[in-house]
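A sample copied in:

***
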Amino acid sequence: MKLGVGIGPMGPPGGERIIKLAQAAENLGYDTIWCPEIYGMDCFSPLAWIGAHTSKINLGTSIMQISARTPASAAMHAVAMDYLSNGRLMLGIGVSGPQVVEGWYGQPYPKPLARTREWVQIFRQIVAREAPVAFDGEHYQLPLQGGTGLGKPLKLMQHPVRDHIPLYLGAEGPKNVALSAEICDGWIPMFLSPYRMFDQYADAMRIKSADFEIAAAVPVVIDDDVDKARAQIKQNVGFYVGGMGAKTFNVHKDHVGRMGYADAAQEIQDLFMSGQREQAFAAVPDELVDEIALCGPKERIRERLQGWKDSPVTQLNVGAADADTLRFFAEELL
């Protein structure tokens, strides 16, 4: 199993913290360092900074939101990053949710699966450079219809290092996960249980190819006090299930519900939205935390790693950024 790590908090201005993290992970044999994008920093700039100070570790976006960039804009970003890093980019993409898509980017959210499929088709054509790109879809048209009429199909001027840049899809719902197995090179799950994958994602597991990558973000807290370690995970889960979405539409709440924790998810949301955040965090079940995270003493984590080793996961993205934790996982898995 390969290992990855997320950038986490940026630290003071200047980027020194993320450079040290990336270099430490690279020296330990980690495969990829991943940079998020929500509505703060973009995901490409920190990776460019890291790429200039490393030579082997792959540079992953987790997740570049497709509403933020047209396929052509994203392709130019990706080709530039891949070129400058000598072929180290892993482009993780996703649709996000309506609060961010419509509230932050001012783009429409409906039909996210169809929009993703069209986006990926155009992106692939641009990077492959086989011909000038023309596309007539429901969500994207190249050239644009109804404009001046002067637009024409164009071909990427820059020759890429690779004519196929790996695409990973960030997804939680079964249909979206199946889409990743159909049209992408990998899947980036969130709040994943390694014990339920063949039940929850039967369609995706059936159609995925042998070289399909599953890069799972796994929260990690090493602490001799298991309850104290779980409490840190509960804050993260409670925030997403309780507040990262509307009362009537929250993909994280729905995902946890499909895992068998629907009543708990509803209680978490009700408490969070009524202003009782600490109670919402406390309502996250211990059993849920133990399924999706690795927490407690090193001996306990070592035992629970077996569930991840036995799963289809190909890369475990360690949800912690301290040197001791990175070294521990390198010793256990690499």
